[in-house]
Amino acid sequence: MMLARQDLIRAWKRGEIRFEPDISPDQISLSSVDLRLGRIFTKLKAHKHLVIRPAQDFDPSGFVRNTTFRSGQIFRLRPKEFRLGQTLERITLPATLAAHIHGRSSLARSGLAVHSTAPHIHPGFYGPITLELFNYGEWNLEFSAGKDVRISVPGAGKRFPKGSGLGADARVKAGFAVSFVMATIMLSS
User: Which of 10, 18, 132, 153 lies most in the core, judged by the most C-beta atoms within 10 Å?
Assistant: First the structure.
């Protein structure tokens, strides 16, 4: 079952779901929490003759370039360009809640996809949500780092029962391949 606005507000006020920096009540919609675009972006380095077998323990760290933008600095995503980004907010989920990421239709209409492969955010997750940003459009997209593009984390989480094997103090650090944007938090019955 998806958490509605009042359930999301209650979970946020009780500290079950935490955000750093904290969110404001206007970021909580009917069934989601809107997060902002962060300031760190990752670009894959071009290698003409490189062949990658991702399923065979591929470590991409030597093949990427990270850039940190100042707050308000313009980040441009060109047509057919792929970049990893992060949410400004770090989120903390308890071991009893999971979430899912969904792109907003208003962003999709501009050509922007915000996740490609991994919409699930595991129980006990802590960190910024990694965004898989791709511009499908025929024009440049510009965003103000640390400010606009309210990337939405609706409530897709599920509550897991105590004793389900997921420890109450389990923490999962955000990794290179974790993706995000609109997460939904759901209850399991």
Answer: 153
